[in-house]
Structure formats: structure tokens, C-alpha cells
Design goal:
Blueprint (H helix, E strand, L loop, with lengths): L3 H13 L1 H10 L14 E7 L2 E7 L3 E6 L2 E7 L3 H4 L12
Antiparallel strand pairs: 1-2, 2-3, 3-4
Length: 94
């Protein structure tokens, strides 16, 4: 179980752009059996210049947000969390 504030941040991002996230996962063939927001339990966020990047992930999928807009999805890899530039795990960074 995640902390309430982390869980709220995940839900806020995912709910805000539900259709866009669904489309990204579908386009990249990462949808699986459907999109269940409760499976997304991890979040990693950082700021570069005036842009906030956020990765929301489940055990199998990661979604990259630029500010509050989802821009890419990729299979989740644990190395993403300790990477100097997590955007490199995605094909689109903006």
C-alpha cells in the first residue's frame, strides 16, 4: 500500500488524463487486460528548468508525464528509478 499523498498524486495524474493514458498504453500494446489505476503504486518526479517530469508506474508499465500531460508509456524497468535521466527509458520525452 502506498502513502495517502503518493496515492492521491498518482490518482490525480492518471484521472486527469485517463483517455490519453489509455490511448498511449493501447498504442504501445501495453494495455494488457485493461487499465486499473490501483495497480499504479509508484511515482518519481523531478524538475528540469521550468518543466516537471513525472513517471507513474505499476509493476509492468511506466507512464511519462510532462507537466500534467502523458507523453509516453513503456514497459517498467527497475533501473528507471535510479537513472540519472529517466526520460531515456522512453521514446518520446516531450
Amino acid at each position: 500500500m502506498t502513502a495517502p499523498t503518493v496515492e492521491a498524486a498518482i490518482h490525480e495524474l492518471m484521472d486527469l488524463a485517463w483517455n490519453l493514458v489509455y490511448g498511449l498504453l493501447e498504442d504501445r500494446r501495453l494495455l494488457g487486460d485493461g487499465l486499473c489505476v490501483e495497480e499504479y503504486t509508484g511515482i518519481h518526479s523531478w524538475v528540469e528548468e521550468a518543466t516537471r517530469y513525472t513517471v507513474v508506474h505499476s509493476r509492468t508499465v511506466a507512464v511519462l508525464f510532462v507537466d500534467t500531460r502523458p507523453v509516453d508509456a513503456a514497459p517498467f524497468h527497475h533501473d528507471l528509478l535510479g537513472a540519472d535521466d529517466p526520460k531515456t527509458f522512453f521514446s518520446v520525452s516531450q
